[in-house]
């Protein structure tokens, strides 16, 4: 089997693609994969690191306001459709899968025009512009939230969940990952991060909370995001607190699948892929939705978990160091509440998402 995968910009679009590729390699050992991304997206780093063939096209997102940049974007779209067509004709895939982010636009569009079956995977409860546009051309639209179905042609949608959920749920050995970070295995661990790129508001609040957190009987693994780690506002503070026994601060957590398997609680943004991971594991969470995303979709993502009793949501504007410490304590010091939240989280998870997406792929290949 030969497949082309395209998706990117942020980790939330890339990791589901990688998880599905890893899964495919186990069920279709002779599969060959080409990944198409952009040079600027996080995929240019992550995909080659995972040993997957990687090619780029040059494309940018449309500005929502009337802007002369959009003329350039139209030109780039036309050029990148033509580049993607060449790559597709050379590689001859059986199917092309898009996991969102604007890079997937020209690739799926080009494949559809060449009459190659296509699947679009939508991670969010409110779809991004690219996937909405592509749903007219795609053979199937795979959903991670049922709610997203209303934005797409109903005959094309199928609920699969997010493949990253299955990857974290299927892990059997986390290889003492906390020990490798210099943390202990016999203490409760809170993992803190602000999505795949970090979040200034979370960093500011956590920095305010660090003096209190350093006194606690639990431990913290905290990823600030690559762009914030060396910021003069933070670096000295991070260096000083890294000397504390129960605190470890890094720019980015590369082995999140293992880390989540050994975590007790998460504090993070409410990106869809993160939520798929923590629900697959039944991990309670404190969610601070980013207000800077299309149609405020992270708030909808977080509300879905909060309403299910699976998470505590804190509004971005209300996040302070005190709230961080208070929310962590309220869960870790109350066993009954913690267990109930863990059970509720697990009920929301889709730990067989890759199996489901694979069935969709087979159907599409068989013309069903
Ligand atoms: C600002 C923005 O546009 N955010 C969107 C983006 O988020 P973004 O890429 O930040 O968010 P997600 O939460 O969906 O995914 C983050 C991924 O990065 C991983 N991770 C994170 C930090 C780290 O140190 N190491 C690491 O591996 C997480 O485990 C997860 O797999 O795509 C998501 C779609 O899927 C959307 O729901 C988000 O709204």
From TrEMBL:
Catalytic activity: Mur2Ac(oyl-L-Ala-gamma-D-Glu-L-Lys-D-Ala-D-Ala)-di-trans,octa-cis-undecaprenyl diphosphate + UDP-N-acetyl-alpha-D-glucosamine = beta-D-GlcNAc-(1->4)-Mur2Ac(oyl-L-Ala-gamma-D-Glu-L-Lys-D-Ala-D-Ala)-di-trans,octa-cis-undecaprenyl diphosphate + UDP + H(+)
Annotated ranges, domain Glycosyltransferase family 28 N-terminal: 3-142
UniProt signal peptide: none
Pfam families associated with the record: Glyco_tran_28_C, Glyco_transf_28
Residues that bind UDP-N-acetyl-alpha-D-glucosamine: 10-12, 124, 196, 253, 298
Location within or outside the cell: Cell membrane
Lipoprotein listed as a keyword: no
Alphabetical keyword list: Cell cycle, Cell division, Cell membrane, Cell shape, Cell wall biogenesis/degradation, Glycosyltransferase, Membrane, Peptidoglycan synthesis, Transferase
EC number: 2.4.1.227
GO BP annotations listed: carbohydrate metabolic process; cell division; cell wall organization; peptidoglycan biosynthetic process; regulation of cell shape
GO cellular component, one term: plasma membrane
Broad class of the protein's primary localization: membrane
Family matches, as InterPro entries: GlcNAc_MurG, Glyco_trans_28_C, GlycoTrans_28_N
Membrane topology summary: Peripheral membrane protein
Pathway noted in the entry: Cell wall biogenesis; peptidoglycan biosynthesis
Highest taxon listed in the record's lineage: Bacteria
Record domain Glycosyl transferase family 28 C-terminal: where: 189-357
Known function: Cell wall formation. Catalyzes the transfer of a GlcNAc subunit on undecaprenyl-pyrophosphoryl-MurNAc-pentapeptide (lipid intermediate I) to form undecaprenyl-pyrophosphoryl-MurNAc-(pentapeptide)GlcNAc (lipid intermediate II).
Family membership: Belongs to the glycosyltransferase 28 family. MurG subfamily.
Protein name listed in UniProt: UDP-N-acetylglucosamine--N-acetylmuramyl-(pentapeptide) pyrophosphoryl-undecaprenol N-acetylglucosamine transferase
């Amino acid at each position: 089997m030969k497949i082309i995968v395209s998706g990117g910009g942020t980790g939330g679009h890339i990791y589901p693609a990688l998880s599905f590729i890893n899964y495919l390699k186990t069920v279709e050992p002779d599969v060959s994969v080409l990944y198409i991304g952009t040079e600027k997206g996080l995929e240019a780093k992550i995909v080659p690191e995972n040993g997957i063939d990687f090619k780029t096209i040059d494309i940018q997102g449309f500005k929502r306001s009337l802007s002369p940049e959009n003329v350039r974007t139209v030109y780039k779209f036309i050029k990148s459709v033509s580049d993607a067509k060449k790559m597709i004709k050379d590689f001859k895939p059986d199917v092309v899968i898009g996991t969102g982010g604007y890079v997937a636009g020209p690739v799926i569009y080009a494949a559809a025009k060449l009459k190659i079956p296509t699947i679009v995977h939508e991670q969010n409860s409110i779809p991004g512009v690219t996937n909405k546009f592509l749903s007219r051309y795609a053979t199937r639209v795979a959903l991670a939230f049922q709610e997203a179905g209303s934005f797409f042609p109903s005959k094309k949608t199928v609920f699969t969940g997010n493949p990253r959920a299955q990857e974290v749920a299927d892990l059997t050995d986390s290889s003492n990952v906390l020990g490798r970070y210099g943390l202990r295995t016999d203490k409760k661990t809170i993992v803190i991060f602000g999505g795949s790129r970090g979040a200034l508001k979370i960093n500011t609040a956590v920095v305010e909370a660090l003096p209190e957190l350093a006194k606690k009987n639990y431990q913290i693994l905290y990823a600030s995001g690559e762009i914030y780690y060396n910021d003069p506002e933070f670096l000295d503070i991070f260096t000083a607190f890294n000397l504390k026994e129960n605190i470890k601060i890094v720019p980015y957590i590369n082995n999140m699948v293992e880390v989540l398997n050994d975590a007790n609680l998460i504090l993070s943004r409410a990106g869809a892929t993160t939520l798929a991971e923590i629900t697959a594991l039944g991990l309670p969470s404190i969610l601070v939705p980013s207000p800077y995303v299309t149609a405020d979709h992270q708030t909808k993502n977080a509300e879905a978990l909060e309403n299910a009793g699976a998470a505590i949501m804190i509004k971005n504007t209300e996040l302070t160091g005190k709230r961080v410490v208070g929310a962590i304590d309220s869960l870790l010091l109350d066993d009954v509440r913690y267990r109930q939240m863990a059970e509720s989280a697990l009920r929301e998870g889709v730990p067989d998402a890759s199996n489901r997406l694979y069935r969709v792929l087979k159907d599409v290949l068989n013309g069903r």
